[in-house]
Design brief:
- By secondary structure, this protein is α+β, with helices and mostly antiparallel strands.
- The protein folds into two domains: 89-169, no CATH class; 184-392, MetI-like (MetI-like fold, Orthogonal Bundle), CATH 1.10.3720.10.
- 54% of the residues lie in helices and 11% in strands.
- It is built from 13 helices and ten strands.
- The protein has helices at residues 2-9, 37-47, 49-71, 184-220, 222-237, 240-251, 255-265, 267-281, 285-292, 297-308, 310-333, 345-352, 361-387, and strands at 89-94, 100-103, 109-112, 118-121, 126-128, 133-138, 141-146, 153-155, 161-162, 164-169.
- Strands 4-3-2-1-10 form a five-stranded antiparallel β-sheet, with no helix packed on it. The protein has a five-stranded antiparallel β-sheet with strand order 5-6-7-8-9, with no helix packed on it.
- The longest helix is centred in the middle third of the chain and has 37 residues, at 184-220.
Length: 394
């Protein structure tokens, strides 16, 4: 009874019910916000400098391919034989304080500025084939080109040898011109447009056909899977060039035949990869739960299985784009690609072979474009493979 009275006599104040500040252990603290699978993949991709460099290079190539021809004063088919085979870098000679000339390997002389802008082709006032010399007139001054011995010499009116002043970059044609006087830079840009277009179209077609075919095969299993994979094996055994020739016989050569060829056969690798992913996923608990809830085959495949296999699918599609670009370049190189005057990187390399020893720059620039594109896509693909791997998630 006394204890009850003691409790009743206690003065309860709000201070007695304040929350005790407990000590939080480091293990209980949240070091960073929780990230979804794709957010974490993007975070890890950004940490890979090579992959980000490849991504920015691809974006830059796309921008140049789309907008480059719009700002260029030339088109891929504009010809000027007077400006044929002018390199991207050449030696200039100073005639006087305000006049400079450039002597081409084919003994053509051009007036140029001191900074390297080609102005016009000069016509010789005298051409003595027997004694092997030509005479040009520049601003009232005669210049003799003596090619009777090597090296070729330029002489002024008083007989003094004019020495090369310096080497300058071609300010009018940054990549030089080809044998028909066409701007090589704009042709490389148009080649990028064609090659990237083929690469992305092939990737989209392969993604659509390969994912659906491989997903269906892996999910059905059994005899259906066996038959569908044997069809894939048969398609994969026929050489690519034979496909191209057969399609060209039916619909003719050009860009359309290459796109159809790549879309016809390049999906088989995607189908195999997707099939393997579906085989490993279809026995998981979430698939059994979907079946229990009455989901049909199409819904399970599209809504559950394929989204969970998107990591390897995206990596494979990224790797397929450079493969398609290289295949198009190879087919164009051997004469099975786009038709003239349309330019692709493969046709530019093929056209450069005839004058390779004299004009190596004609092969260098399209080959450099192919190499940069291949490296960019491969770096991006490697980074995506690491970023989308759930085993590397931290």
């Amino acid at each position: 009874m006394n204890k009850t009275n003691d409790v009743n006599n206690i003065n309860f104040t709000p201070d007695l019910w304040e929350k005790i500040q407990g000590k939080t252990k480091k293990g209980d603290e949240i070091s960073r916000p929780s990230l979804t699978y794709w957010q974490d993949a993007w975070r890890r991709l950004k940490l890979n400098k090579a992959s980000m460099g490849g991504l920015f290079t691809i974006i830059l190539l796309i921008i140049i391919a789309v907008f480059g021809p719009l700002v260029s004063p030339y088109t891929y088919y504009d010809q000027d034989l007077n400006l044929a085979s002018i390199p991207h870098r050449f030696e200039i000679y100073q005639v006087d304080e305000n006049n400079h000339v450039y002597l081409h390997k084919a003994l053509r002389m051009y007036t140029v500025t001191a900074k390297g802008e080609v102005l016009e082709k000069l016509t010789p006032v005298e051409n003595n084939v027997m004694k092997k010399y030509q005479v040009y007139e520049v601003n009232g001054k005669k210049i003799t080109v003596d090619y009777s011995s090597k090296p070729i010499q330029l002489k002024s009116e008083d007989g003094n040898i004019i020495q090369p002043l310096k080497k300058v970059w071609n300010k009018r044609f940054w990549f030089g011109t080809d044998e028909l006087g066409r701007d090589l830079l704009i042709r490389v840009i148009y080649g990028a447009r064609i090659s990237l277009l083929i690469g992305f179209i092939a990737a989209i077609v392969n993604f659509t056909i390969g994912v659906l075919y491989g997903g269906t095969s892996g999910y059905l299993g059994g005899r259906a899977d066996n038959i569908m994979m044997r069809i894939v094996d048969i398609i994969n055994t026929i050489p690519l060039v034979l496909y191209v020739i057969l399609i060209m016989v039916v619909i003719g050569s050009g860009l359309r035949s290459i796109i159809i060829t790549l879309g016809t056969i390049y999906w088989v690798n995607m189908a195999r990869i997707v099939r393997g992913q579906i085989l490993s996923l279809k026995e998981q608990e979430f698939v059994l739960a979907a079946k229990t809830l009455g989901a049909d085959t199409w819904r399970i495949l599209v809504r559950h299985l394929i989204p969970n296999a998107m990591g390897p699918i995206i990596v494979t599609m990224t790797m397929m784009i450079p493969t398609a670009i290289f295949t198009e370049s190879f087919l164009s190189f051997i004469g099975l690609g786009v038709s003239a005057p349309m330019a692709s990187w493969g046709t530019l390399c093929n056209d450069a072979l005839g004058g390779l020893r004299s004009y190596p720059y004609l092969l260098f620039f399209p080959s450099l474009a192919i190499c940069i594109t291949m490296l960019a896509f491969n770096f991006l693909g490697d980074g995506l493979r690491d970023a989308l791997d759930p085993r590397l998630r931290k």
